[in-house]
Write a structure and sequence with these properties.
- By secondary structure, the protein is an all-alpha fold.
- It has a domain at about 115-185.
- It contains three helices and no strands.
- It has helices at about 1-135, 140-150, 165-185.
- Helix 2 crosses helix 3.
- The radius of gyration is 63 Å and the shape is rod-shaped.
- The protein starts with a helix and ends with a helix.
- About 10% of the residues are buried.
Length: about 190
């Protein structure tokens, strides 16, 4: 029996450590299992946070892209408007140059008209002087000569187109003739 007891004792002893070993392994397995579950949950949480962060980044990026497209559209409009402005400026420059040229032509035509009017008045006055001289009206001749001395004589042509005495020379002849009549008149 002693042996049996020893066997019993041994079997009890054997059972005790094995049950203690099995009981000790279970909490470790549960602990490791809980750690795996927690790690899995942390990874899942990390994945969700990462996806949310990516979604926010994509939203910001899409807003940035749409803003850049708006800026690009605005820049294209600006470039188009600048081209239109440059074209309008060129047209304005051409129009101003044409207007300047027309003003110069108008000024030249006005100057020519004034010169022709002055010449016409001078020729008419010369004709009147000649008529008054022929009629012997010295007072009228003196009045016309004083008009000529006031600048009208400068408007008389110095050359003749028809070969007769030029009007400027004819005026001088008539002036001398009138002065000679005045000296001879009592």
């Amino acid at each position: 029996m002693k042996l049996e007891r020893r066997d019993c004792g041994a079997s009890t002893l054997e059972e005790t450590p094995s049950s203690a070993g099995t009981g000790g392994k279970k909490p470790v397995i549960v602990y490791i299992f809980v750690l795996f579950i927690v790690a899995f949950l942390l990874m899942a949480l990390s994945l969700l946070i990462h996806q949310r962060s990516n979604a926010e980044a994509l939203g910001a990026l899409s807003e940035s892209v749409s803003a850049m497209q708006g800026v690009q559209g605005t820049q294209e409009k600006i470039i188009s408007l600048q081209e239109q402005l440059a074209e309008a400026r060129e047209q304005l420059d051409r129009a101003e140059a044409d207007a300047q040229e027309e003003q110069e032509q108008a000024a030249a035509l006005l100057a020519e008209r004034d010169m022709l009017e002055s010449r016409s008045r001078a020729l008419l006055a010369l004709y009147e002087l000649q008529q008054h001289y022929s009629a012997g009206e010295l007072e009228a001749c003196r009045a016309l000569i004083s008009d000529f001395e006031g600048g009208l004589a400068d408007s008389l042509p110095r050359e003749s187109e028809t070969g007769v005495t030029p009007p400027a020379e004819r005026y001088l002849e008539l002036k001398e003739a009138v002065e000679a009549l005045e000296e001879g008149a009592p």
